[in-house]
Write a structure and sequence with these properties.
This protein has 294 residues and is mostly helical. It is 71% helix and 1% strand. Helix 8 packs antiparallel against helix 9 and helix 11 packs parallel to helix 16.
């Protein structure tokens, strides 16, 4: 199976699982479920679930139902996008090529839709079948930490907001993106490994891979915000510069940023040396993250 077919297969697998976990639109109260599904099934690439599944496959051949654990990552990611787009934060009108959740359902319902996706993520992990209690606890702790305030996504978002208009420095950039984007991407790889029962050595190697992939992803994201159109990105291009955000191009320039992304890709590959062919999908996903144009 080539990479395109693999991604399409896993995306369908994840979407089917998400469809089972998220209440149908007709379920009362229907408006909140419509808002949740509107954002969740808006055509996201499912990068985080893909990384989780590929990490599990690198550890073990027994990865049945791993898509359910991977769902939790997409629920958290989508909640963060809904809240990020709100007028009080980035105030964006476009996400994944369509009007943002609050533009369609209003601010109040968008806030509640994000809240609902957040809480559902932990319900999913708590109810995983075929996973012992200790690993379920580990998965819950991993996702909660990666989403939180100390080195996690929310902490990174706080630093991002407070950094607007400040002189762009490497230290501030690092504090923002290792937490805001990197933490959840690293957790994606770690959660796949934990689900598959990875030992300490394999978990450490995959954590290293996740660190490098997470940083590469954000570097490329920042570069694309400068180079691509809103139509290509599916979100408003040029917002970083308009809001005077701390980004890799703002600190290092475009050419150096591209070189840094390539360095992170190489380091991500090197972290997987002991896995052999079992890590080929992870390497391919790392390459795709670097080479993407949207």
């Amino acid at each position: 199976m080539n990479l395109g077919d693999y991604i399409a297969f896993q995306q369908k697998r994840v979407d089917a699982a998400l469809g089972r976990w998220v209440p149908e639109e007709a379920q009362d109260p229907s408006l909140i479920h419509k808002a949740m599904r509107y954002s969740l099934f808006a055509g996201g690439k499912r990068v985080r679930p893909l990384l989780a599944i590929a990490a599990a496959e690198a550890v073990s051949e027994s990865t049945d139902s791993v898509e359910n654990a991977a769902c939790a990552l997409e629920l958290i990611h989508t909640y963060s996008l809904i809240h990020d787009d709100l007028p009080a934060l980035d105030n964006d009108d476009l996400r994944r090529g369509r009007p943002t959740c609050h533009k369609v359902f209003g601010d109040a319902m968008a806030i509640l839709a994000g809240d609902a996706l957040l809480t559902l993520a932990f319900e999913v992990l708590a109810k995983l079948h075929g996973v012992d209690a200790q690993r379920r606890i580990q998965l819950v702790a991993e996702l909660a930490t990666a989403s939180g305030t100390v080195g996690g996504m929310i902490g990174g978002q706080v630093n991002d907001i407070q950094g607007e208009g400040q002189p762009p420095t490497a230290a501030l950039l690092d504090s923002i993106h290792r937490a805001k984007t990197g933490a959840l991407l690293r957790a994606s790889v770690r959660m796949g490994a934990i689900y598959a029962g990875a030992g300490e050595a394999k978990l450490a190697a995959l954590t290293d891979f996740g660190e490098h992939v997470g940083l590469a992803f954000q570097i490329v994201d920042d570069v694309l915000d400068v180079e691509q159109s809103s139509e290509a990105l599916g979100k408003t291009a040029g917002k970083d510069a308009q809001q005077q955000k701390i980004t890799f191009p703002a600190v290092y320039g475009l050419e150096t940023s591209r070189a840094m992304a390539e360095q992170e890709r190489s380091a991500a590959h090197a972290a997987l040396a002991d896995f052999g062919e079992r890590a080929d999908r992870l390497k391919q996903l790392a390459d795709l993250i670097i080479q993407r144009t949207a």
